[in-house]
Amino acid sequence: MPDADLFQIEPPGNTVEDLRHAIADRLVYAVGKDRPSATQRDWLFAVFHVVRDRIMNPWRESLASADAQNAKRVYYLSMEFLTGRALTNAILSAGIFEPLKEACALLGVDFDALIDIEPEPGLGNGGLGRLAACFLDSMATLGLPGMGYGIRYEYGMFAQRIELGQQVEEPDYWLVNGYPWELMRPEFSYTIRYGGHLVLKGEKCVWEDTNDVIATAYDTGVPGHEMRSVVTLRLWSARASGGVNLDAFNRGDYIQAVEDKNHSENVSRVLYPDDRTDHGRELRLRQEYFFVSASLQDILRRHIKKHSDFVQLADRVAIHLNDTHPALAVPELMRLLLDEHKVEWEEAWTLCTQIFSYTNHTLMEEALETWPIELINRVLPRHMRLIYDINAHFLAEVHHRFPHDHALFRRTSLIEERGVRRVRMAHLSVVASHKVNGVSALHSQLMVDTIFSDFAQMYPERFCNKTNGITPRRWLSQANPSLSAVIDRHIGPTWRGDLDQLAQLRPLVDDTQFQESVRDAKQHNKQRLTELIARSTGIQVNPTSLFDVQAKRIHEYKRQLLNVLHVITRYHLILAQPQAPWVPRTVIFGGKAASAYDMAKLIIRLIHDVARVVNADPLMGDRLKVVFLPNYRVSLAEVIIPGADLSEQISTAGTEASGTGNMKFALNGALTIGTWDGANIEMAEHVGLEHFFIFGHRTEQVAELRGQGYAPRSYYETNFDLSNAIDRLAEGAFSPEEPDRYRHLTQVLLDSDYYQLLPDYAAYVACQERVDELYRQPAAWTRSAIHNIAGMGAFTSDRTIREYASEIWRIQALDGQ
Ligand code: 26Q
């Protein structure tokens, strides 16, 4: 063996001179260009390499110390990781922002322009995927041994264009030019099997004649705050296996063989847009199994390298299911243990129940994932068999404990028996997990009161709450340098790793100089947002108007339509009294609609139709403007959120599990107008109800109304502003070229209004008036904004992850990290 000293690597230097030299070096030796021929992208890629080099040592050290300490690790399984751009985050983590910028300047390279062309991995839909990304950031910051596992989609979340006021989807081929941040790891490749059939050989069940796909690992490093440690995000990409259709190849049907190869590579092609009520797509099931099987094979390989058996598996491994999308991990772990490693059934099942934990992100019955048995049987026959076995084992326990309750049997079974028989993935996840958590206090309570009430009776100790959080590194430090600098001046910079320190801002609320600098920072960010609006929509807005923002996926339960009803109402009131002292307001929307979700798409169109009429009305002037910012995504959120005065969080009580955008806005000094839903409630408690515009029916009232056969018309008939808004909309005031465009939508509102917009309308409009009133008093407004910032300490994902680590995963930070 060569001397270990020969492998000692000098850490790269970080002076301006070191960095300038490194960029020039990488441009030539990694990118293969020289200065005269280098494009902007070449420079970007050179910088990427330089920054990636800076995380390599800490990354290796993190892996080595987890190994050396034989640490228990957590594996976070998620179909989505919405990481957003990596470069600025890594630069800040490495602490080389200033010298790197200077080094670029010396080379004649415009650093800010590079940042703008960085490809953005949009490998998630929204909340759930972004939460996974914040969690990795916090795991790295806390030095927790763990990894994320997911899919390296070739096409991420579609790009949204607006054409004639309507959403048009475009594919997001984010890998076109390559992605220098990732490392391909072909040595970590696994065979994923589909189809075939089962053959019983004595006691043994053999799965034969499968169609195989290869999963290959691509790693990125997620650096924590101040590079305390680096966590690996391992994403799997599908490659055809050599074995696929060798027959056709041998028959000389070369084209057919290559076509089949393309076909099997489809499995990691594209991210499914969140259409919560549409499941049953075969390719989606294949995707779920694909990444789960690769991840579990990888986890067991890592274990068996060190241990000769699985006796200690649960002391070394925790596996977390981000919603039910990875729930096939349960039968897959059983399969690997039973079929490949000869573990006994009971022992394997005990291991499963010690290893798995599961987060639920939705209560909506129709959104709970189920798969037709016929489909699972065809695609994964072995797993269907194992699910039946697990169900039998579970139902035997139910029978033993509640021998006479047949209804309980039917309700809790892993198999839904009405209509087409389906597997209930949530039941599978609950039965296999030692902990099941919701994502806000309200949501976790409703979870045990409603969808999981039977399970909560059987296993009360299993259910818990872990209120979501967000990383303050990306969502304050990086996105809002102006406000961060103000905070730094007053309480120092260490809040980035200890967000509770923001409470130290509370004593400063009456300090007029502090107020002024908070206001200046906000104004600066509003200016930035004003320019973005002009660039992407051509609309000029008044940067001193109140910026009222609702940015999130378009969903009926999120009630963008209630916001629009307020806009229409305000429009009518201004028309009636143009001389009244209106607070100038810019109402800003952003968000994508799932491609098959017609109602959501119609709401986007409505926003544009209303904007067209309102913005063109000479009587409005600055008093009211409506803007839809296309293609909402992480990088856009980083500009929109710091520029907001008012954050709209107005879901029907009991429907938004937590929300995380709500936290991002408040942390950046926006005030919230929101319902008694999700984490809004806890946020209001932390900042003080007097600094939070909370309104509307609570969950119980929503349920009560629904229970007594709620009739929306009574609200319509007794509220003039409301009926006026609905009537104008219905008769085509905002769509004169097609007067009936919103006829159906208004009918639905008046006939069913499933999300109860009408009962909350009056309270909402009244609350908006209180918003105006406060905005007229800049000092009072800023005081409330400061209370919001100061109260957000609890909503760091560091706190959330600490709770997961100690109460669910039972893992500890690495020594020396
Ligand atoms: C389902 C079927 C087929 C294809 C896709 C899907 C699918 C994809 C994504 C279903 C759901 C999702 C995402 C759900 C989600 O983002 N939920 C949000 O999770 C956040 C983090 O906990 C919460 O803050 C939000 O309240 C919750 O809506």
What does this structure look like?
- It is a single chain.
- The protein is of the alpha/beta class and 817 residues long.
- It contains 33 helices and 22 strands.
- The strands form 5 sheets. Strands 5-8-9-2-1-10-11-15-16 form a 9-stranded mixed beta sheet, with helices on both faces.
- Helix 22 (560-576) links the parallel strand 17 and strand 18 (585-590).
- It is globular, with a radius of gyration of 27 Å.
- The two termini are 29 Å apart.
- The model has no long low-confidence stretch (mean pLDDT 96).
- The structure holds ligand 26Q.
- Ligand 26Q binds next to helix 6.
Q: Key features?
A:
single chain; 817 residues; alpha/beta; six-stranded parallel beta sheet; 48% helix; 15% strand; binds ligand 26Q
Principal-axes geometry comes out as globular
Ions, cofactors and other bound molecules: ligand 26Q
Output the number of helix runs.
Answer: 33
Q: Terminal Cα separation, in Å? A: 29 Å
Using only CA atoms, what is the Rg? Answer: 27 Å
Low-pLDDT windows of residues: none
What is the mean predicted local confidence, pLDDT?
A: 96
Percent of residues in beta strands: 5-15%
Main beta sheet = 9 strands, mixed
Helix content: 40-55%
Helix/strand/pairing category: alpha/beta
Query: How many strand elements?
Result: 22
Strand order of the largest sheet: 5-8-9-2-1-10-11-15-16
How are the SSEs ordered, and which strands pair?
Blueprint: H1 16-31, H2 40-68, E1 73-77, H3 87-94, H4 97-106, H5 111-116, H6 127-142, E2 146-151, E3 159-163, E4 166-170, E5 183-194, E6 197-201, E7 204-208, E8 211-223, E9 230-240, H7 246-250, H8 254-265, H9 282-306, H10 313-316, E10 317-322, H11 329-340, H12 345-355, E11 356-359, E12 370-372, H13 373-379, H14 381-401, H15 406-412, E13 415-416, E14 422-424, H16 425-432, E15 435-438, H17 441-449, H18 453-458, E16 463-465, H19 472-478, H20 481-491, H21 512-537, E17 546-551, H22 560-576, E18 585-590, H23 598-616, E19 624-629, H24 634-640, E20 646-649, H25 661-667, E21 671-675, H26 680-687, E22 693-695, H27 699-707, H28 713-718, H29 720-730, H30 743-751, H31 757-775, H32 778-790, H33 797-809
Parallel strand pairs: 1-2, 1-10, 2-9, 10-11, 11-15, 15-16, 17-18, 17-20, 18-19, 20-21, 21-22
Antiparallel strand pairs: 3-4, 5-8, 6-7, 8-9, 12-14, 13-14
